[in-house]
Automatic annotation (TrEMBL):
GO terms for biological process: protein O-linked glycosylation via N-acetyl-galactosamine. The gene is GXYLT1. Its EC number is 2.4.2.42. Belongs to the glycosyltransferase 8 family. It comes from Catagonus wagneri. It catalyses: 3-O-(beta-D-glucosyl)-L-seryl-[EGF-like domain protein] + UDP-alpha-D-xylose = 3-O-[alpha-D-xylosyl-(1->3)-beta-D-glucosyl]-L-seryl-[EGF-like domain protein] + UDP + H(+). This is Glucoside xylosyltransferase 1. GO terms for molecular function: UDP-D-xylose:beta-D-glucoside alpha-1,3-D-xylosyltransferase activity. It is an enzyme of class 2 (transferase).
Length: 409
């Protein structure tokens, strides 16, 4: 009898325990369903949702599961694994400040953590290191510095093509062999929206697309390729390679149609013959080679609208990027040196505002008013005419990132 009683008690105890466990599981899943508004789950959620910068640095004080993928915390295991967004840039000559401002703009607005791949001339490495290490409190990015390298055959020729080292970008799929996807940008890019937004386009690629770029021009009457090119180019007006999203896994796998041999060639094998064939006919270096490649392989290119690569060309002859006026300017591309001269004061004002600000919330909020005043002064210029579009975009991006919980984005 006593033994029987003991068994009953044991069973009751076991039942009670499993009931408790079931309730605790239920509670956890409810909390997570509600966006992690509870105690501990919130810390975990906040540290990666706020992973774009301020939230993580100030909040949980931890880089979250992204930085500790092995952490066995039950709550973080339940969260999606964090994919890092890879951003690459090639900096040579006097491009330090510009590159740093670009990287800063990426960090100010982005949500998911970033991994920077910085290809730079040796004499710039120390300066990059000092500046980026001083941002390490953000805990939302890491970086690698690489020297500029070209295949030993024709190295000199690649190096002097168009601008010094610009053609480095063509070799990124071959150098960064471990990286699946990458956003390449020129140094004169400023992000006015989170990098997450353009990164999400990778998932929109159909099965044959391997890279994404914006058209070189919206208006064929002022297009360069369609009027002057002495080589094939993509589409009606060509594409601009200043902002190039790549699925490098696919680029490395693909065999490319071409006009040099009847067999299809891999990325690593196509570049050299292409340079040999076209070097006397190309003007914009590596961008022209990309245009030739995608002329022959149009099914492989995803073309995104001009607001992802907004250049002075889109406003100096009148406004010709309709999408930007309607939906906003997502990525600004101050080519032809407009951040540093007086030709396009609207572009310059935005560059200086971002260059001057720090990562503090206050600093970012207080960037808008003086910028608006500055931009109003440019209203007599073509690009200044649409200054309200610039202000609207920045206001929205700052609100999204700093004034609302990330969940509502
Ligand atoms: C950056 O972080 C990723 C993910 O945690 C890691 O795989 C990579 O090795 C890191 N890179 C550097 C240079 O620390
Ligand atoms: C280069 O341009 C010249 C002059 O327009 C043209 O005749 C020639 O076919 C071009 N070369 C190639 C490889 O397309
Ligand atoms: C890139 O393409 C590969 C092969 O199709 C695919 O497995 C991978 O998920 C793609 N990457 C992204 C970020 O979509
Ligand atoms: C993918 O999209 C491109 C561009 O719109 C198109 O040319 C290509 O045929 C599409 N591929 C597939 C498999 O649908
Ligand atoms: C940025 O700082 C410079 C001086 O460092 C100043 O001349 C300029 O007016 C500032 N610009 C903006 C937009 O804050």
């Amino acid at each position: 009898m006593r033994r029987y009683l003991r068994v009953v008690v044991l069973c009751l105890a076991c039942g009670f325990c499993s009931l408790l466990y079931a309730f605790s599981q239920l509670a956890v899943s409810l909390e997570e369903g509600a966006g992690g508004s509870g105690g501990k789950p919130q810390a975990a959620a906040a540290s990666w949702l706020g992973g774009g910068g301020r939230g993580a640095a100030r909040g949980a004080g931890s880089a979250g599961p992204a930085a500790h993928p092995g952490r066995s915390d039950r709550y973080s295991l339940k969260l999606q694994p964090i994919e890092r967004m890879h951003l690459a840039v090639v900096a040579c000559g006097e491009r330090l400040e510009e590159t740093v401002t670009m990287l800063k703009s990426a960090l100010i607005f982005s949500i998911k953590p970033l991994q920077f791949h910085i290809f730079a001339e040796d004499q710039l490495h120390d300066s990059f290191k000092v500046i980026l290490d001083s941002w390490s409190f953000l805990q939302t990015f890491n970086y690698s510095l690489y020297p500029i390298t070209f295949p030993s055959e024709n190295a000199a020729e690649w190096k002097k093509l168009f601008k010094p080292c610009a053609s480095q970008r063509l070799f990124l799929p071959l150098i960064l062999k471990e990286v699946d996807s990458l956003l390449y940008v020129d140094t004169d890019i400023l992000f006015l929206r989170p990098v997450d937004d353009i990164w999400s386009l990778l998932k929109k690629f159909n099965s044959t697309q391997i890279a994404a770029m914006a058209p070189e021009h919206e208006e064929p009457r002022i297009g360069w390729y369609n009027r002057f090119a002495r080589h094939p180019y993509y589409g009606k007006t060509g594409v601009n390679s200043g902002v190039m999203l790549m699925n490098m896994t696919r680029m490395r796998r693909k065999y490319f149609k071409n006009d040099m041999t009847t067999v299809r060639l891999r990325w690593g094998d196509i570049l050299m013959p292409l340079l040999k064939k076209y070097k006397l006919n190309i003007t914009w270096g590596d961008q022209d080679l990309l245009n030739i490649i995608f002329f022959h392989n149009p099914e492989s290119l995803f073309v995104f609208p001009c607001q992802w690569n907004y250049r002075p060309d889109h406003c100096i002859y009148g406004s010709n990027c309709q999408e930007a006026e309607e939906e906003g300017i997502f990525i600004l591309h101050g080519n032809r040196g407009v951040y540093h001269d007086d030709k396009q004061p609207a572009f310059r004002a935005i560059y200086e505002a971002l260059r001057n600000c720090s990562f503090e919330d206050d600093s970012i909020h207080s960037l808008l008013k003086p910028l608006e005043l500055e931009l109003q002064k440019t209203v007599h210029t073509y690009c200044g005419k649409i200054y309200k579009v610039f202000i609207k975009q920045l206001t929205k991006s700052i609100q999204d990132r700093y004034d609302r919980p990330p969940k509502e984005r």
